[in-house]
Every structure is written in structure tokens, then in C-alpha cells.
Amino acid sequence: MLNNKKQKFIIFLLSYLILFLFWAVFSYVFTDPNLTLINQPIIINWQNFLWQKILPNHALRIIVYLILTTALIINYFYLIKFWPKKTIFSNKKIVLLLILIVLLLLVSYNALSHDVFNYIFNARMLVKYAVNPHRVVALTFSADPWIRFMNNTHTAAPYGEVWSGISTIPYFFGFGKFIFTWLNFKIFAFLGLLISAFCLNKLLINDSKKNYHLAMLLLNPLILIETLSSAHNDWWMMWPILLAFLLTKKFVKEGKKNFLLLCLIIALILFSIFIKYTSLLTIPFFLYLFLENKIKNLALAKNTWFVKARNFINYYFWDLMSIAFFVPLITARSQRFLTWYLIWPMAFLPLLKSKWWRNCLLIFSCSALFSYLPDIIYVPWLFFDRDLPNLLLYKQIILWFPAVTYGLYFLYNVISKHVKNTKR
């Protein structure tokens, strides 16, 4: 039975690979008209074919995206269902398939976002032009050919100074070649995910199902596409926080003042904050861990309600952290939910205790992929910066409707159960 389950897992992993192969090919339909990644006749002819035959065909473009997205989501849930209980990394077939999936996504086009082009040009401004991208806008260098496919050329870099600094690393190793630089930023995003996975693995040290819980996050199609294909920088904000929590637990457990370890924890928190300021939300959680032992000794600590509150926080610590990272997603600054920001609360997915919140995040990860549908529909117009009223509203409806429906259903079940228990 176990062998049969493992065989099914390999079959679904293989089908996942095939689906991402189709995704990699399909993604190049959305290549910016001003961009030629490889200046070879066969590649140019293939790209022209995609632009002329697939891109203008609205029905075909939409159907392919819907089928691919649906198939990826269904395949993902079957992968999780048939996840082997024992470690998978001794199985060469599984490791090879995982590597091939990663490689396919790394070479796919960032069809759903132009942000990686912003990262590249901001690093270019630092290295080539020796100017601060937080004070000088990209449009200043309008003659530069790398600016043609960048978004928000009229605004300064929106990220923290730390990100601008470390983004010069993948830029430097691009050696002035755009395609190498582009690939380097994707690999750099993947490195952030790998470090986060390492930290989560350590935080789950006592969890007998840690590989299963990690797979739920790392094989999620939204996480894979937003990290490897779109190359978003959010894991570079999250892994320092995860590592800081890992070191904080060690610091508290040792029970002695380790000044160097404390400095490292503070440095990691600041590193994350100066990539994206949302990490400021973690400060109360760090303070709670540092002060928990002192809180126990307070006179108030013997109060029944206080004890219940402390036990609740301890048990649902990561859930509360995840919810805290979710709250900024509904603000005006995040346009009421930029889909890749879902990486923030989902980073804690393997650590969650609440089945309800875990399911909510998984539902959001699915609806987030479908919320790109208005962009897919109007992509030819978006290339020419045409104003499309209600586009954001359509995206929000698609994004929120499934999760709200699930929330109402969950609430109905809770109330019904309570009513039944009361009658008894």
C-alpha cells in the first residue's frame, strides 16, 4: 500500500512537471514587446509566432490560462494527499523531478509581474550610474535600453535600502548581459526560499509530519510561480525573520545572556525591516518571547483569564503571526491585496495550528492565481498602459469570494454545532 502511494505521488509529481513545462512555454506569450531575451533567429521566430497567433486570440489565451491554473491546483492537492510519510530525498526519481520543476520555472518568463525588471534597473542605477534609486527615478536614464520594459519608471524604489544593496549581487554576476542578470535575480529569489525552508525545517524539529507540512508550502503553485517565475523578493524579507525566531528560541532556552547572539537577532530583524517595512509587525512577537519568563512571575499571571490568554498565545503563536502579516494585505497601499504578498502569511503555513486559518490561506493561494484572469484578458491593452476601469475590482472579487464563502460556511458549522450542544 505504501509503495502504491509513493508510485501515485511520483506520477502526480511527473504530471506537475509536465504542467509546469506547459506553463513555461505559455508564459512567453506575455513577453514584453520591447524585450528580446535571446537574439537568435529561431527564438525570435518562435516569439513572433506566440505574439501573432496566441496573444491576439483572447479566447485561446483565457482558456489555456484557466485550464493550466485549474490543473496545477488540482495536481497540487493530490500531491499533498499522496505525500510519502518517510523522507523523499533518498528517492532519486523524486529529487530529479523536483529539480526539473525548479529549472522549468526559473527559465519561464515572469508573465504575471514586471517587478523583477524594477529590481534589475534599481540595482543598475546603483552599480552603473552610481546614484541612489531611492532618490533618483529610473526615467532619468530614459536612453538606457533596459528601461523599456520596466514599470513605475517615474517613482523611486519602493523597497528598503537593504534590498537595493543586496540586489547588486545578482546584478554584478550578470556581467552586463541582460539575460544572465534576469536569470540571476530568479536564482536569488529561489535562494531566499531555500534559506526560509531551512529555517522552517529547524523550527519544525519536533513535528513528525514536518516534511508534509513543508511540502504544503513549498509545492504550492502560487508560491512556486511567484518565487521562481515572477522572482519576487518577499522571501528575502521572510527568511531573516524566521532565522531570528529560531535564534530567539535558542537564546531564551539557554537562559543566559549571550550578547553576540542577541546582536545577531537584532541585525536579522533590522535586515528584514529595511527590505520591507512590514516586518515591523514582528517586534511585539519577539518582545513576547524575550519577556515570557518574566510575565510568568507577575502577580497577575495567576489570574485564570490571564493564564488562558497566555496559553492561547503560546499555542497559536505562529497563527497570530501569520494573521498579523495578512492584515497589511487589505490596506490601500497593497491595492487591497497584491497576490505575491500572500507569501508573508503563508511563510508560517507549516507551523500553523488552526486548520481554519490554514485552509483560508490555501484557498487564497488558489483564488490568487485566478485573480490574474482580468490581467490575462486585458494584457494587450496593459502593454500600452491603457486605463482599464474596474480591473482592480474584478481581481478583488475573484480573490475574496472563495475565502469569504468558506469563512461563512465554517461559521455556520460552528454555530450549528453550538446550537446542537445547547439543546442537549
User: How can the largest sheet be summarized?
Assistant: none
Ends: how far apart?
42 Å
Number of strands: 0
* Secondary-structure element string: HHHHHHHHHHHHHHHHHHH
Low-confidence stretches: 381-386
Helix content, binned percent: 55-70%
Number of helices: 19
Rounded mean pLDDT is: 88
Rg, Cα atoms, Å? 23 Å
Percent range for β-strand residues: under 5%
**Principal-axes shape call:** globular
Overall structural class, as computed from helix and strand content, comes to mainly alpha
Helices, strands, pairings?
Elements: H1 2-27, H2 41-54, H3 58-81, H4 92-107, H5 115-127, H6 161-166, H7 168-172, H8 178-203, H9 210-218, H10 221-229, H11 235-254, H12 259-273, H13 283-296, H14 304-315, H15 317-326, H16 343-346, H17 355-370, H18 373-383, H19 391-423
Helix pairs in contact: 1-3, 1-4, 4-10, 5-8, 8-9, 8-11, 11-12, 17-19
Structural features, described:
The structure is a single chain. By secondary structure, the protein is mainly alpha-helical. The protein has a domain at 1-112. The chain contains 19 helices and no strands. The protein has helices at 2-27, 41-54, 58-81, 92-107, 115-127, 161-166, 168-172, 178-203, 210-218, 221-229, 235-254, 259-273, 283-296, 304-315, 317-326, 343-346, 355-370, 373-383, 391-423. The two termini are 42 Å apart. The model is unreliable at 381-386 (pLDDT under 50).
